[in-house]
């Protein structure tokens, strides 16, 4: 007679859907306090560009039923549920360069970007 012992598998915790750097949080806090007061930033992924996908950001008055609510650094950001699989583990930053400034995304799911940096694929 043989016996089989089953060891329960540990369930690995998923990384957070999205996190904000201190710079992104500071910029977003400023936007929420000024012109976008009372609104929330929604992040989505749209079909666009040479590589197929592009980050899309828009302001909304309230979360939709299809939004995931991300809270980080005492701020709230919405992520469209359809985009969540593409964004798991993404870090949102705010960069200021010589001629440009804006939010950037470091996404561990990206497999490549187009030459201009406007779109990506997973």
Describe the structure concisely:
The chain contains two helices and nine strands, in the order βαββββαββββ. By secondary structure, the chain is mainly beta.
Describe this structure in words.
The structure is a single chain. By secondary structure, this protein is mainly beta. It has a single domain (18-115), classed as Hypothetical Protein Aq_1857, Chain: A (Sandwich), CATH 2.60.300. Helix content is 13%, strand content 39%. It has two helices and nine strands. A four-stranded mixed beta sheet has the order 3-2-5-4. Strands 1-6-7 form a three-stranded mixed beta sheet. It has a two-stranded antiparallel sheet with strand order 8-9. β8 (112-113) and β9 (120-121) form a beta hairpin. The longest helix has 12 residues, at 22-33. It is extended and about 75 Å long. The chain starts with 17 loop residues before the first strand and ends with a strand.
Features:
Hypothetical Protein Aq_1857, Chain: A, 13% helix, mainly beta, 122 residues, single chain, three-stranded mixed beta sheet
């Amino acid at each position: 007679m043989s016996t089989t012992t089953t060891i329960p598998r540990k369930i690995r915790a998923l990384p957070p859907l999205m996190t904000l750097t201190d710079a992104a949080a500071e910029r977003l806090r400023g936007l929420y306090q000024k012109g976008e007061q009372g609104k929330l930033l929604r992040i989505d992924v749209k079909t666009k560009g040479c590589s197929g996908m592009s980050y899309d950001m828009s302001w909304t008055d309230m979360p939709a039923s299809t939004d995931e609510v991300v809270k980080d650094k005492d701020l709230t950001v919405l992520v469209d549920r359809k985009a969540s699989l593409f964004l798991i583990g993404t870090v949102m930053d705010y960069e200021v360069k010589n001629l440009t400034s804006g939010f950037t995304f470091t996404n561990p799911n990206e497999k490549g970007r187009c030459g201009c940096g406007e779109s990506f694929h997973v």
